[in-house]
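Tutorial, part two.
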Amino acid sequence: EDIFKWSVDFFGIQAGDSFGVIYDEKFTGDKSVGVGRIYGAYFKSGSKTTYAIPFADDNGRVSYWDYDGKSLKRQMLKAPLKYTRISSKFTHKRLHPVHRVYRPHLGVDYAAPMGTPVHSVADGTVIKAGWGGGGGNTIYIKHAGGLQTGYLHLKSFAKGIKVGSKVSQGQLIGYVGSTGTSTGPHLDYRIWQNGTPIDPLKVTQQPQEPIAKKYRADFESVRDRVIAELNGEEVEPITEDDIFRRN
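Running the prediction step on this input gives:
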């Protein structure tokens, strides 16, 4: 989940989706005590298969890359919480469940149990953490590239979250609630691009820098062996030396 969290919404998966992983399992004697290095993985949904190939960058840090050598990391996570279902989508005309009139709903409502943790989808700075009228307890976070996210109807804020706080991607910022004008516990999640509301479910993001050309041959060698092993073929297993190898 940590590897694919930028590209796969694990709380919206469908019957028939599948995945495969190659990994080290750690043992103390005969007792399994956890997972070590992940040497490759795939996630398949419908006709789309996303691969995760490990390869070290110039700083010696292992990252995961797709088939074409593009980083799986993105500026924003696919979703800010583990939700039960999407109860309302982005629309310019929705029948309000309380006021019973048609009005825009420029966000996505994620239904979730009271108290479910909510995380910042990207690095940024908190520009609002307080009461938002009908939105109840609200957090707004400003991100790079003219992006801003909003988290409404929260039960409460996480410790240390206040105006001016610097937050990192995936950091806990609050908890699902039903404050303000709300009919039940949910998170109303919103995104603005340069002040214009955009549909959170249709955000397109550019990946980070791809594999450098000078490492391309080494990366493709690792990639092809990983995919072959994921497909059940007999190949020489990938090692730490392969991941850190440089021409």
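Residues 26 and 32 are 6 Å apart (CA to CA). In part three we will examine how such features are distributed along the chain.
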